[in-house]
Amino acid sequence: MQFGKAVGTACSSFIVTNIDDLFVLVTFFAEASISKNVTPVKITIGQYLGFTVIVAISMVGFGAALVLPSEPIGFLGLLPVLLGVWNMCDLVFKDGGEEEEGLQEEDGAAGGAKVASMKSILKVSLVVCANGADNVGTYIPLFSQAKGAEIAVYVVVYNILLGVWCLAAFLIMKQKHIFRMAQKYASVVIPFLYMGLGIFIIVKSSCYPWSIEHIDNSVSSHPGKIIMGVVTTIVLFACIGAMLWIKVRKAAAQSPSDVSIAGQEPEASGSSIAS
């Protein structure tokens, strides 16, 4: 095991999959400044609890690697690539995610002082788990490719960086201009980081050379490269097409409501003039 390389992989995979969690943490710390029930300590505990659940789920991938060959599991590296494409689609089709986050903040503040301590911790951990689909999709193939004590290094580094993340979120909340700048450019950078991480996992696992070799050994014409190229193209085009279809449907569903709201405004203004 190359310790330095393992630490570097752990750091890069954590940063890529938790940039969005940094903004969530900043929101919680902002709430802590006006609420007695949500405190920095409770936020940190909830963050660690939720992240522990994510890591535990990702360990399933490591268990599968003990039964299955590690090479084909590397195809799960396509998940971060598709996550990058999904995030890139978000740049083109705005789906109102910010409005949903705003509603979550209002729900958290509505409880006020009546919200119990355990409920505050549970709320943070549930948000972390709900926002952890990209983490699981990245950690499962990464853990499955781990050798020796690498997986232990990953988990230790993740937990250390999680504490750094909580501290950074608290400090960023105090410097709002830095937060605005990061929030502005992160949405553009994150898709490419996901794609790069997915490509890294695929290359590291040697899943394509392994599959091509097995196909060539089974068929005399050695069509391994052609088959893998065609299958990969079909899968990627099908997934990307489904993503675009979902985004277009969401955009079409939102546009009528916008039109109706816009259409009601002139009537309201007209009635006020008539009165």
Automatic annotation (TrEMBL):
Pfam families recorded for this chain?
A: Cad (PF03596)
Does the keyword Zinc-finger belong to this entry? no
Recorded superkingdom: Eukaryota
Q: Keyword Secreted: yes or no?
A: no
Keywords of this protein's UniProt record, alphabetized? Membrane, Transmembrane, Transmembrane helix
What transmembrane ranges does the database entry give?
45-68, 151-173, 185-206, 226-246
- How is this protein named in the record? Cadmium resistance transporter
